Amino acid sequence: MVESIAERITNIRSNLPESVRLIAVTKQVSVDTIRAAYAAGIRNFGENRIQEAEAKQAQLQDLPDITWHLIGHLQSNKVVKALKQFQWIHSVDSLKLAKRLDSLAEESSCSPNICLQVKILPDPNKYGWSIPELMTDLTELNQCQNLKIKGLMTIPPQGLDNLQTLSVFEKTQELAQEISKKNLSNLKIHELSMGMSEDYNLAISAGATMVRLGRTLFGERRIK
Q1: What Cα–Cα distance (Å) separates residue 78 from each residue in 52, 82, 101, 191, 220?
Q2: Which residues of 129-198 form beta strands (DSSP E)?
Q3: Among the listed residues 198, 192, 190, the one whose alpha carbon sits nearest the alpha carbon of residue 215
Q4: What letters, b where the CB count within 10 A reaches 16 and e where it falls short, cover 170-192?
Q5: What digits encode the pLDDT tens for the residues 108-162?
């Protein structure tokens, strides 16, 4: 018997600590399926692409209590749209992008919640700061007064075993703690956005506060 989306959500939530926010990743998921997840209690939804999110959000305006999370790469020419469409941006991956967001957030009179994307291990397929690069940029990031820089986001490289993946998540938590010790006024790093369908339990054990689940909730992607 195939589980319904509501049953999947119930089963996953029963195993999630209350401190962990479940973000349903709806890339290539239909609006009807999003509504089913909403009916099952999901309020946090993540999208990878601004254009796809825009089309869905236009059809979901009757659900005003949804919190939208941008989890895909953000191009600098899409920043204005991102600020209008998303309450959270998990994929701020460079000082240049952070500064542009800060400037345009001031013009738009908004203050988005931000995660800084980090690469704990070298990975040519991922965006983000290396640890040394991020530590170097902290002072300038702290000057971004229109951003609520609340956490770190990471995606482990593909092909790691469980111990290697866990190590990536643990090092992300250690990095967050190291940044917090610096007591920078505009960097309140208490969120850890890490863990997807294949590794979210490892991420939770390492201190994740937000997990981004797509396939585990919705099965294989339904629309293109």
Answers
A1: 13, 6, 10, 24, 28
A2: 148-154, 187-193
A3: 198
A4: bbbbebbeebeeeebeebebebb
A5: 999 999 999 999 999 999 999 999 999 999 999 999 999 999 999 999 999 999 9
| Dist. CA 175–CA 173, nearest whole Å | 5
Residues 6+ apart with CB under 8 A from 33: 5, 26, 218, 222
Q: Answer whether residue 85 shows pLDDT above 60.
A: yes
| CA-to-CA separations, 223 to 28, 60, 220, in angstroms, rounded | 5, 17, 10
Q: So what CATH class is 5-218?
A: alpha beta
The CA-based angle 112-191-104, given to 5 degrees, is 15
pLDDT at 1: 53
The domains of the chain are located at 5-218
d(CA 45, CA 170): 25
| pLDDT on residue 101 | 97
pLDDT per residue as tens digits for the range 21-36: 999 999 999 999 999 9
Ramachandran category for residue 207: left, alpha or beta (phi over 0 → left; psi -120 to 50 → alpha) = left
Q: 107 to each of 79, 95, 100, 102, 213, how far by Cα in Å? A: 12, 19, 11, 9, 33
Q: Within a 10 A sphere around the Cβ of 158, how many other Cβ atoms?
A: 9
